[in-house]
Each structure stands twice: as structure tokens, then as C-alpha cells.
Amino acid sequence: MNHSRWKTLRERKLAEGFTEPDDVAEARQQIGLSMALARAVYERRTELGLTQSELAARAGLTQAKISRIEGSDTVPTLPLLAKLAKALDASLNIALDDDDTRVTFTPHETSAA
């Protein structure tokens, strides 16, 4: 069964009145947040033309740690998120709503001299 069929099956069950157990819903939300952060870090890093090693050096981290963040294998602490935002020369924006999680990095404006 491929992923699109899982989604269809889940949506069909929800439409029929099925409700997920609380622990499953919580795990789904945590995974979604981790994936949104991973995507935002990857997109900003590639936008800057940085390798994982270069970003790690800027942030004072290891390349392996950057890889784990981009692979959704870890959820960083707030101090680590601050390091990432600084290394990516951006502000980190996280919007958490019931069914909508958005994570973005907003580039800092550079003043023209």
C-alpha cells in the first residue's frame, strides 16, 4: 500500500466518524512539526548555497546534527534553534494551529551601503 492510499484510507475513516486515539494524534502532530522544521532548514540552507558542513560550522554544530535536523530525526532545543536562525541569517517563524503548522525562516534585510 503506497502513502497516497494510506491517506485516502485515513480520510475515509475520519469521514465515517472514526477518531484517532489521542496518542496517535499527538504523535502525528509532533512528526508534522519536525518535518516542517526539517524542510524549512533545508530550504533556507540551499537558498544560501550552503552545505550541511558549512551550516554546521556557522552554527557551532556538527554536520551530523544538521543532518539529523534535516532528516526529522531530532527536535532541537530553543537555544539550538536560535543558533540555526543566526547561522541562516534569518528570523525563525513558527505558527502552531490545530491542523496547520508552518515553520519558515525570514531572511534578515541587508542594508545597501
Automatic annotation (TrEMBL):
InterPro entries reported for this sequence: Cro/C1-type_HTH, Lambda_DNA-bd_dom_sf, TransReg_Diox_bact_type
DNA-binding recorded as keyword: yes
Residue intervals of the HTH cro/C1-type domain: 41-95
Keywords in alphabetical order: DNA-binding
Keyword presence, Plastid: no
Pfam families: HTH_3 (PF01381)
Protein name (record): Helix-turn-helix domain-containing protein
